Amino acid sequence: MKIVVVNGSPRPNWNTATLLKEAAEGAKSQGAEVVYFDLYRQEKFTGCISCFGCKLPANEGRCIVKDGLAPILSAIREADGLILGTPNYFGDITAGTRALYERLLFPYLTYKISPRSCNPKAIPVLLVMTSNAPNAFYETSPYGEMLKNYQRTLSTFIGNTKVFVVGDTLQVKDYSRYNWTMFDPEKKKLHHETTFPAEKTQAFALGAEMVQKPW
Ligand SMILES: Cc1cc2nc3c(=O)[nH]c(=O)nc-3n(C[C@H](O)[C@H](O)[C@H](O)COP(=O)(O)O)c2cc1C
User: Fold this and answer.
1) The domain spanning residue 169 has which CATH number?
2) Residue 161 in contact with ligand 1 by CB distance below 6 A
3) Residue-level pLDDT at 153
4) How many domains would you assign to the chain?
5) What pLDDT is attached to residue 19?
6) pLDDT attached to residue 109
7) CA–CA gap between residue 17 and residue 11 (Å, rounded)
8) CA–CA distance, 28 with 41 (Å, rounded to integer)
9) Taking the chain, what is the end-to-end CA distance rounded to the nearest angstrom?
10) How far apart are CA 19 and CA 36, in angstroms?
11) Domain containing 163: what range?
């Protein structure tokens, strides 16, 4: 099995990437081949430019734009699973992740009454979101609905999607350099030391499950 992992954080070694690397190791532990991309290390790219190239019958289901996203899109087409991670930026996925999302999903949208999607091969998707907000906030705020919406749409066009939220992350190494009053640095550090390791273990297990028992 081939699993594609995409880090939608601009930071290649922080919270999101750490969890994605664990999930990748989990997938590898079950014999999968993993292809890992740092979205923000790709050549320049944009979201969908509405060229409608993908709607021409000859290109059905394929984005024809050749930029930094093209290698990721073609790797996902050949994959048996997709692990996509993004920090929460202003209650949403990051701009880069949204660009990938548009370019990945729009080619499969048929604009036909039925079927809605022309994706010939559904693959399991794991969407990982990290945030300052704690996990519980997703139950009581619009964050929950935002994630459900991504889960629904990814499930329709790419394949059954699981969501893994990791909140209350450590945002910087040294909070004392900033005049922030919203956070208790000691609490953040404690959470990072006590809870984040268990979340890494959960990420590993989800990566392994994607290969062992694809959903
Ligand atoms: C531009 C920007 C916007 C953010 N907006 C939010 C937000 O709306 N809600 C939230 O809970 N965290 C927000 N955060 C915090 C990040 O989601 C959080 O620190 C995340 O774990 C960072 O992921 P990383 O360590 O992989 O880069 C924001 C961070 C940045 C840089």
Assistant:
1) 3.40.50.360
2) no
3) 98
4) 1
5) 99
6) 98
7) 7
8) 23
9) 14
10) 13
11) 2-212
pLDDT along the chain (215 residues), means of 10: 98 98 98 98 98 97 98 98 98 98 98 95 98 97 98 98 98 97 96 98 98 98
CA angle, residues 194, 195, 200, in degrees to nearest 5? 115
Evaluate: CB of 106 within 6 angstroms of ligand 1.
no
The label of the residue with tokens 């740092």 reads: 38
Nearest CA to ligand 1 atom 18: 131
State whether the beta carbon of 97 lies less than 6 angstroms from ligand 1.
no
Q: What is the pTM of this model?
A: 0.98
